[in-house]
């Protein structure tokens, strides 16, 4: 669930005044300080009925909900350290949080101790509090480098990513970390020295994360034979888009390995969807807001002998923002081919929605937004499908491409455990 900052403020203020009133927020901000013994600059805190102010030794101030503090108590009664799962119930935390704890600094100054009115004791290291407030080191968008064609794109020039030889990926931790760091920072990574077969492509991908099963199978190898009812299985040009916008758990990575390039055409186009969305935010904030707030359906259908065999639909916004960071991009889900009839958009708002959508499309299709590549056998390219868009030019002759999807959860899990996120 997404909570914006004003919602959180109302939630905390609601224990003082009716939720949502401007007065509630103002009163909350003026809570009297109670822990006079902690008023020194290095000391810990001051508590109010619903919030506690915790000042770190470096002067940083955190104003936190008492219910939140109790909800996140890490003592053995409240949290199972072995499974890293919560024991305390939300109702218990809520009830206990109505009475402010007495705050004191830990003897070694590394954190804060909270003595609750029911006799319970909570201790937090300052670093632990920061971790709890920002559980996903990568979710905030830190470490990302948005790019355009001229402003240092990752596939050539001085800001190019380092291609990782398959031998390094297989044998050294640096290989995996480089792939994952490239994916997180730029949305793309390449692995070189891979035999031009589906099996070798799969083996390379599995060094990074498992292959994601989908309605197209696990690994796939396609030529322009029209074997699936998707534009990817033809030879026409395809504009930039995200894949699997019609799945609730849309593919996290798109993997391509061109086993046989087309004699003419068939180049690959990439665009940084987060950069395009930020450009949209600058050029027309209302357009950005509409695409980030109005959900639309995408869908995929297949038929055999006139009978439906696949029909997936997903309702979500084209732009998703990260609530932890207060609005950095979290996912772009852009695919005009798979966008449905706009059934979820009120008729009175369809024109405004289309104007916003067309504006984003126009930005994505500016030459400045797009980088073109001639992929060759031997190089596997991995693309963050929650951020980058891909497309291709039309081609003639035989062209064989192998690839697969990787789930977002699987590759970001590897990124966390290897210290990349
Ligand atoms: Fe695609
Ligand atoms: Zn506890």
UniProtKB/TrEMBL annotation:
Its cofactor is Fe(2+); L-ascorbate. Residues 161-405 form the TauD/TfdA-like domain. GO terms for cellular component: mitochondrion. It catalyses: N(6),N(6),N(6)-trimethyl-L-lysine + 2-oxoglutarate + O2 = (3S)-3-hydroxy-N(6),N(6),N(6)-trimethyl-L-lysine + succinate + CO2. GO terms for biological process: carnitine biosynthetic process. Residues 53-129 form the Gamma-butyrobetaine hydroxylase-like N-terminal domain. Belongs to the gamma-BBH/TMLD family. Converts trimethyllysine (TML) into hydroxytrimethyllysine (HTML). This is Trimethyllysine dioxygenase, mitochondrial. It comes from Macrostomum lignano. The lineage of its organism: Eukaryota, Metazoa, Spiralia, Lophotrochozoa, Platyhelminthes.
